[in-house]
Amino acid sequence: MPRHKLVASESDVSIEVDADFTEDRVREVKNERNPKAKERDTKRKLEIHKTTEQKTENKKRKRSHSKQRGKRNIDDEDKGGEQISKQKKNRKNKKTKKLLTEEAEGEGYITKQKKKRRPQVDEENANATKQMTPEGPPKKKKRAKVQVESSSESEDSSSEKESSEEEEWKVTALTPEELEKLKEAVDEKKKLITILRGKPWPMLKKLQTLKESHDFLEKFEGALGKGKAKKLYAYKVMMLKRWMKFQRDFENFKTACIPWEMKIKDIESHFGSSVASYFIFLRWMYGINMILFGLTFGLVMVPEALMGKPYGSMPRKTVPRAEQASAMDFAVLWDFGGYAKYSVLFYGYYNSQRAIGWLKFRMPLSYFLVGVGTVAYSYMVVIRTMARNANEQGGGDDTNFNFSWKMFTSWDYLIGNPETADNKFASITTSFKEAIVEEQESRKDDNIHLTRFFRVLANFLVLCCLAGSGYLIYFVVRRSQKFALEGLENYGWWERNEVNMVMSLLGMFCPMLFDVISNLENYHPRIALQWQLGRIFALFLGNLYTFIIALMDEINLKRKEEETVKLNMTVWMANLHNGTLAENSTAPPITADPADVPRGPCWETMVGQEFVRLIISDTMTTYITLLIGDFLRAVMVRFFNYCWCWDLEYGFPSYSEFDVSGNVLGLIFNQGMIWMGAFYAPCLPALNVLRLHVSMYLQCWAVMCCNVPQERVFKASGSNNFYMAMLLVILFLSTLPAIYTIVSIPPSFDCGPFSGKNRMFDVIQETLEMDFPAWFGKVFSYASNPGLVLPFLLLMVLAIYYLQSTSKTYKKANAELKKKLQAQNEENKKKNKRAALKASDPEEARNSASEQQWHQINNNASKKEMDTWGCERGQNQHVTTCTRQSAAVKRQCGPADLHNPSTRPPPAQRNPATHGYLPGNPHQPSLRMQRTSSLKLQ
Amino acid sequence: MGGAASQLPKEMVSEYQELTFLTKQEILLAHKRFSELQDRDSLSSRVPMEKILTMPELKSNPFRRRICHVFSTSEPNDGSLTFEDFLDLLSAFSDSATLEIKSHYAFRIFDFDDDGTLDAGDLEKLVNCLTGDTDETRLNPEEMRQLIKNILEESDIDKDGTVNLSEFQHVISRSPDFVSSFKIVL
């Protein structure tokens, strides 16, 4: 009989049997005579088999511990006694209540409850092994019963009590609150499973805990609730499991879908995280461009190509007669003229027909909305990423731990290449030395005037460079307009590509010049890098804006041209009609071949073309500099080194380094141009995707084969948001001109989806009038009148102001808290000193010191941490008043609060080596300390 | 468990997934790499430290021996790893591991004498690890003393002459680059 076994094992260990306890038992046994109880018994049989096995195991462990325990904490007994008597009363009251309710309660609950008790008891048991019990051993019997009542006294449990618990649980039935507790326990187990991976335990222990928790969950999850609710609950649980599995699979799928992971990892291991951060940024850009491409391709280009009028049906869709001869030449196509110009790639090809195809696709509307959507999506993504980065960085501006950070966080564990590792060693050493020197003599200001003079001079030179490059671009663009007016055919390749080439060359050489100039300034490398980046940024921006201004001039020219063409057009039409009328007045008017119809210059297509050319030439220069600057140089250095008079590899040319910041800037500007031009050339995102794709492979290859790791390795994380901020600025600056042209310049009369309209955005109004019911248009017009828009804007400004001021207050509060923390630290220090003076035993002082600190950290630590720390401390048999107090506090507050056995870490089977590493206390010393204190007590 | 070179059973993979910060692919890759390291002849599931250290990911890491010792669960603590220890290692160094777990293991790696605190000796060894083995990059004793003094001044909150785990975590949690650099990817 299992029951015998149980009793036997119990008496085996029990030290003394309380009279009270035996009485209870008798009552229970009587209760069991009920017919119900029998059934219950049979159900229990299996359970008990298991439990007894486990119990005996536990007991073995216990016994060894109980010896230790016996010695300890005699002074605690008084406290414990008081409490126990109190709790006993409680228990009796409750028990009678429970006996009454038992009849009413369903049978299933009891067995459930029993089952539930077992693992919990096991865990408590396990806790007991590592946690010290403040109460002495003689109290165990009584307290065990107390525990049955409150079912949550996980703080202290003992081997003897659990068997008695087993008995008692047969009688006590499940009240709603216990059901609640069971639910809580289940939830906690679930929580434990989810946070298990975050525990610094060895795998074996984690596995065990997981298994236990799973067993527990399997048993009780479905058992909660009753009748229909039970089924529903079980169903919910099942679905939840499926959902979790699905989520995990989806997560796996997602990671499998991330492209170039291995390539980037390879680079990471060779060059450290900062170079890899460039490639991650590139990949991110690629993702964004993919989506932009999907938008334009799916909603603009494909519908027009499939459902719009075919090529050659209209003047805007045909190559003019004059150009037809050379329209298929490669040189012309490369320049995006000829057939490329009159295709879906550019704005001018699109028809202004309101709805096309059998789908009645609203082409102009779609074109407009996609243009707006691209920009809106880009803003959203950039800002969201920035916000996330800012969150991750958190309090990164704290400079209190300069040295410690250098020490603890400077090694990049990703580095797997000995050469990079050597560079890293060197850079860490210099950073240490610099920091020490700075600390020793806080800033020697030798000849500050000279440095200042040089810095001013450097900035002056840089400004000259910027102005010069700006003028050069303006000059070149104007010259190219002159060429264009005279007809490009008379000029060679250089004249045609002058603008782009000049821009690319300036972008190539000016940064080098800046680099030379910045040597004058004698800044710290990090600050120098920021200056350098700022200057390059200014250069690119200046160039881009001069380019745009020049383009604006050209747009105005084209519009004048358009006026004359319009006049000519009417004349031409009249001629055509006159001719036909003269011949045959009754026949329908003969329409001319679309290639012969005179047409306007279509400035939109021109703008698009310019941008596409710019992108192409930029891409080419990037690739060519990569090939020449990196690859050829590397080849030369490598092979000429055998027959040269000095060491080329370590001497002058050497291998090139990968310039992270320059490359990132290039990428950002490229993206800016895409944003600017995408409205007029829907093919731009596609081109950019292609370019990024190629650069990914090309640059990966170039980096791995011909670059050397940087000598000064900068951290990637610090500059992440810096780049993002640049991207945002560029995005804003590049949308400005695009929006300006859309809003203020009327579209060409004979090309593009908005031809014939006064402004491009009129398409919205048109749609509202024609496709929506009348009331909608009315509402819209009301909503868009200034009387409503202005208050709305005002409201937004107010909201911004409010949010800003709240964030300021939060900052202030943070600073205050910091101050408080520091003050507390000071106080703790003082206390520690006092304690150290008082204590004769130096180790005791340390103990109290650690405790102080523990308390202090408790203040800001989360509750979860607190819990785990508490147990870990207990596990070390570290007798501190702190734990005692917390145990006492827990005992006093109600059962709801007490109920957290399952968050406790399960049985510890730690290897001795890992023992000492637990948070919050000096470990080995504490062990020693415990031994000495117990000796004293004896 | 740890079934030598054989395929990893499915339920084990899902359990490991639940217990580590690794994805399924990473676990399978880890298993592949680990079984490559394993000796075909010997039956023991442990891979000796010397073999682990030949992995390119750890080869040039100055803390490679410490890392092996910290993650090893072998009894004599010779730094040999089972597959599960290996997974623990990868999980702690993975991209998605939390700051808590990373800082915990970082502390144990830096704690050269395994006594639960970073004292001056540990810090000195740490600095020597970081500055490399050659004499030209080493700090001289004067600099070393100054450096350690500064570090203790900053992070030893309770002024007991050592940095313990909570102090360490306090310092680390404010650092902007710790999580991004405390990574090893297979």
Report on the architecture of this protein.
- The complex is a heterodimer of chains A (938) and B (186).
- By secondary structure, chain A is mainly alpha-helical.
- Chain A is 74% helix and 0% strand.
- Chain A has 33 helices and two strands.
- Chain A has helices at residues 2-13, 19-32, 35-71, 76-104, 107-130, 140-150, 159-171, 176-195, 203-220, 227-257, 261-271, 273-307, 330-334, 338-341, 363-393, 402-409, 418-440, 448-486, 493-496, 498-518, 525-583, 603-640, 660-677, 684-706, 717-744, 762-771, 774-783, 786-838, 842-860, 863-875, 881-892, 895-898, 923-937, and strands at residues 656-657, 707-708.
- In chain A, α5 (107-130) packs antiparallel against α9 (203-220) and α28 (786-838) packs antiparallel against α29 (842-860).
- Mean pLDDT of chain A is 70; it is low at 1-171, 582-588 and 856-938.
- Chain B is mostly helical.
- Chain B is 55% helix and 2% strand.
- Chain B has eleven helices and two strands, in the order αααααααβααβαα.
- Chain B has helices spanning 10-19, 24-37, 49-53, 56-59, 64-71, 83-92, 99-110, 120-131, 141-155, 165-173, 178-181, and strands spanning 117-118, 163-164.
- In chain B, α2 crosses α6, α5 crosses α7 and α7 crosses α10.
- The longest helix of chain B is centred in the C-terminal third of the chain and has 15 residues, at 141-155.
- The interface between A and B is large, with 85 and 88 residues.
